[in-house]
Amino acid sequence: MRKKIEELEAKIRRLEEELGKTKKALQNTKISCFPCIAKENKINIQDRLFTILDCLPAWIILLEPGGCIRFANQKFRQKFGNNLKKPCYLLLKECSQACIYCPAREVVKEKVPFEIEFKTLDERVYQLFAYPFKDIDGTDLVLELGIDITEKKMLELENIRNHQLAALGEVAASIAHEINNPINGIINYAQILLDENISSHISGISEKMLKEGNRIASIVKNMLLLSKDTKGEKKEFSLTDILYDTLELLEPQFEKEGIEIKTEIHERISKILGNQQQIRQVFLNLLTNARDALNERFPGIHPEKWVKISAQPCCDHGEMMTRVIFYDQGIGVPPERLEKIWIPFFTTKPGNKGTGLGLSICSNIMKEHNGQIDFESVYKQFTKVSLLFPANLKD
Ligand SMILES: Nc1ncnc2c1ncn2[C@@H]1O[C@H](COP(=O)(O)OP(=O)(O)O)[C@@H](O)[C@H]1O
Ligand SMILES: [Mg+2]
Q: Which of 71, 106, 132, 373 has the greatest CB tally within 10 Å of its CB?
């Protein structure tokens, strides 16, 4: 063992000596002795550096303190165009003057690196790093590096939401148990009254009690189902059942806001293989969007304040599918906004009413289920969201 260690140590010493010699040889090489090679090397190195900068998945710019851009890599030019004569605030924010709190100015003033999160006009979120930089002519510049963190932010927010949902689920579960017992008692008493065959007036009332009691029991059951954590597992289930469950959950609120729910659900809808909770979430998101759109266009009572849900079997490229359509005549989406609605965090809803995550989550869930989601809308006329699910051919 000891001998082996000694051998290894000798080997390391030899390698160190070799390395020292090579280092010295490199230092002694006078590139100026070979001017053409030196020039060629310089060009190669410059080219290579530019290629590296252009390949980076982040934008890199060199800014003058006033905001003019001296250099921009390909990633930046692809996003903001080749016209680098414009100052950064015009290119990035379409503002006519420098931002009140300008990172470039801060870096030049304080001479220390600076880091902020920044949202571009197309709603992408960037992490921006700014460093002091001295150009070859001695000018004080700012080197800015922008990394697109939209997806990361979305995942973070989804994570927070999942935690909140899990906490809410626990609360819902305990409330549901508390409600479940007394409501079953009420249902039983109403049934006893009904069985007693008393006057038609009283039996009418007990029938109503039974109906409303069952409705509460069913809402509580659905609330529990929605908050249950299934960890993305897939099972065979009926789309129709999930649809009716979701409608049952939203019905009281829709009724209160004067929104009628119309359904046209084909009786032979195939089962699908998927995650019930996720599909429930898609239906819930789309129905909530329809509700918000209807309330925005018709704040009060209106005959057109309805949402229609239809589900039909269909054939797409020779495959058996199920198409579910959510149609509302709410405020709709203007054409210039149609592409933006899929971007995470894009919302037109005031305050904390919207997160802007609904449609992007729906789109991810549909992709995970090998399905499709299409959005069609005419401003102040209608919105039609169409979902396509592959049918489970086993049944
Ligand atoms: N049915 C609809 N009618 C009109 N606009 C809609 C509808 N569904 C979605 N939108 C638009 O798309 C945006 C993004 O929707 P979404 O991703 O669900 O986020 P959020 O509902 O939190 O705003 C909404 O803010 C709204 O402007
Ligand atoms: Mg939404």
A: 373
